[in-house]
Amino acid sequence: MRSPRSLVGGSPAAAYAITFDGRELPAQEGQSVAAVLWGAGILAWRTTREGGAPRGAFCGIGSCYDCLVTVNGLPNQRACLVPARPGDAVTTQEGTGRADLTV
Amino acid sequence: MLKRHSLDAVIIGAGVVGAACAYYAARAGLSVAVVDSGPVAGGTTGAGEGNLLVSDKEAGPELDLALLSSRLWTELAAVLPREVEYEPKGGLVVAPDEATVKALRNFAEGQRAAGVDAVEVPANALHDLEPHLAPGLAGGFHYPQDAQVQPAQAAARLLAASGAEVHLGEEVTQVLLDRGAVRGVRTPRRELLAPAVVNAAGTWGGHIAELAGTSLPVLPRRGFVLVTEPLPRVVRHKVYAADYIADVASGSAALQSSAVVEGTPAGPVLIGATRERVGFDRSLSTQALRRLASQAAALFPVLAGVRVLRTYHGFRPYLPDHLPAIGPDPRRPGLLHACGHEGAGIGLAPATGLLIAAALTGAEPALPVHPFRPDRFGSGPGAADTPEEHP
Known about the structure:
The complex is a heterodimer.
Chain A: H1 4-8, E1 16-20, E2 23-27, H2 33-39, E3 46-47, E4 54-55, E5 68-71, E6 74-78, E7 89-91, E8 93-94
Parallel strand pairs in A: 1-7, 3-8
Antiparallel strand pairs in A: 1-2, 3-4, 5-6, 5-7
Chain B: E1 2-4, E2 9-12, H1 16-27, E3 32-36, E4 51-52, H2 61-79, E5 91-95, H3 98-114, E6 119-122, H4 126-129, E7 139-143, E8 147-148, H5 151-162, E9 165-168, E10 174-178, E11 181-186, E12 190-193, E13 197-199, H6 205-211, E14 219-230, E15 238-241, H7 243-249, E16 256-263, E17 268-275, H8 286-299, E18 308-318, E19 325-328, E20 335-339, H9 345-361
Parallel strand pairs in B: 1-12, 2-3, 2-13, 3-9, 5-15, 13-20
Antiparallel strand pairs in B: 4-8, 5-7, 6-7, 10-11, 11-12, 14-17, 14-18, 15-16, 16-17, 19-20
Helix pairs in contact in B: 1-5, 1-9, 2-9
């Protein structure tokens, strides 16, 4: 299969691990969180505030805010823009991701 | 050019005040048209927070207007669609020290005599009302009558409920006169003829007064609002520090800020609002935003870790004595004013509409209107003829 990498004759850098809901996933330097999740076949990582419908990457370029996710405990990170760093703990974001603040 | 002859009144301005005037005039049996150079709620209404406050007003004519409006909003909430997001959430004014608690106590005493519900909250009970409130506050006052609406929706639904004919995107270029009396308005697309014209143009009310050959010294007072990312309910009331009251009443042109923090049904927390007189300058003031953010985080430390998504700003229509101009302009027969509500226009709109409808039909007004008379600033044609009217 031809891929951008094969076209330029590149070879992958060493992979490191991040976790998604506790499951270990391989990531590479420069990949966004969304790319890592997609690479592992995961398409949804957030539920909407009204109705709890599943959401993942939509525009992929930081405009639509559909791909929000919780990274290392901080909710509302755009998965398509945030780089995956070694050891990042990505978790599914339910609604606002701030249920703990509810009074 | 299109002409209409069967109107009883033309209302200039499709903000919340114009919409309320249309609503109550139509309810009184009048045929009205509303005309605006922009969209519904395109000016100050759409740039507000939707405050329906009695808590920030000292006893006096504006408070009476706010109390009447508060009752009318309750009625309106029952008949308007739920998109207006009417929330009788109550207000909580907090004081940093004992001296401020004392000042609030005096302030509340005067308000109670006027019919306001104000309940003193001791320091140890503040967190029962607002669990995320900062520690160390000296006390506060709870105002159950304070409420909130989504202002653009409120204006739009009120206007739709009025059944008025509406012309948007049409600037009034001329107020038509006949032997010194108003007989309608002209836009680039039509003439709207009516024996009465209501100036509900808000911050731009001075311009309309000028078109009618008279004057009203409405000035813009800029305000910024911060909008956070959507959150669950973290703030229950409209919460603000006591110095907000002094800021509202101040005549200073310099930047004033005291955070008013509140949740919304849609999720974001709104943090308002600065006040500064800089004309119609729409440029962003990072100084204003920084102050709002730090004051909000001082009231609710939890907000320090929450992201601000956007900011918006608008221009409050400000009159020198902080009271709106409501009623007929004796200097120009047929012209009525309903503008200059500063930052309280959403709250004061229904009572204003009711008073305007009474003036249009000759009915007894629900409140004494003398404090709101439009010619109290004393310039314009005919002013010299009525020197006893001038303060």
